[in-house]
Amino acid sequence: MDEPSTRLCPLFVFATEWNDTNERYTEPIILVVSFYSAPNIECEPCGKMDSDMRSWIASVFFIMTLLTGTRGQQAVDLGTDNGIRLVMGILSKSGASGSLAFNGVCFHDFPSTQIPTSFDAPAENLLRETFSEDLMMQVYQDASGIIRMAQTDVDRSILDVKIRHVSFTRPQGSDGPIYDPTEAMRAILQSPEAVHFSHMHNLRFPAIAVHLPHAPLNSESPHISGSLNDVTVSEGLDRILKAFPGLWVYESCPGAVEFFFFSNSTGWVYDMPRKHP
């Protein structure tokens, strides 16, 4: 039997953030990335979509709304949106990067989180307290400086897939560097080894890509170039963190996996949930 064809169906949603004086932010506030790669799913134009496509488009708009809530709003409790804001606020304030791996249902979920009693502590300690209600979650900073947050029972199979070669160059045959972590993640997740693994294990990669406005790119903008040889998927994602500080997220679900990327920004610090005085 022929191996089913696979298409990557990215969806890009543009949103705008405003500050309290009704001025548009020009720096990138939020970037969330994952990709949908499933056998025999066509990328249809607008107005001609099947039920699978409609469902993940709805997910995009949910996450866009969830992540672009009113700035300065006091969090009442921590769900998916406030949990993400808290984790990213801690990482952004400290200048650290991290990875998060957890089990879920790939439908608007996030590990249980709580607001630390105090923010006067290293990021590793703050994140350990943030996830303290999740008994399966381990938090530690490894030798590379990346803060690892991972549930002990999460299936890491796809993260451990070895990629022979991945090149970080722009599409359409351009030899220039990549200025967008979306493209860098695409290079890794579209590698022949990762696609083959998804076929063999009947996995789907739901696609969500949310971008906010950013300042014009120049030679000083963060970027990634060159190539990697004989690295695992997780090692490739770690390489992206060196160029674009932030957090990569891996969610393992029944019959599916999701990958997200969040970029560090002062906007997260401003919007970080805090306890009431």
Number of extended strands: 12
Shape: globular
Cα-atom Rg, whole angstroms? 18 Å
DSSP helix count? 7
Alpha-beta content class: alpha/beta
Please list the strands of the largest sheet in the order they lie side by side: 6-7-5-11-12
Largest sheet composition: 5 strands, mixed
Mean pLDDT: 74
Pattern of helices and strands = EEEEHHEHEEEHHEEHEEH
N- and C-termini, Cα separation: 64 Å
Which key phrases capture this entry?
12 strands, three-stranded mixed sheet, alpha/beta, five-stranded mixed sheet, 7 helices, 277 residues, single chain
In words, what does this structure look like?
The protein is an alpha/beta fold and 277 residues long. 27% of the residues lie in helices and 22% in strands. It has one domain (6-271). It is built from seven helices and twelve strands. Strands 6-7-5-11-12 form a five-stranded mixed beta sheet, with helices on both faces. It is globular and about 55 Å long. The relative contact order is 0.24.
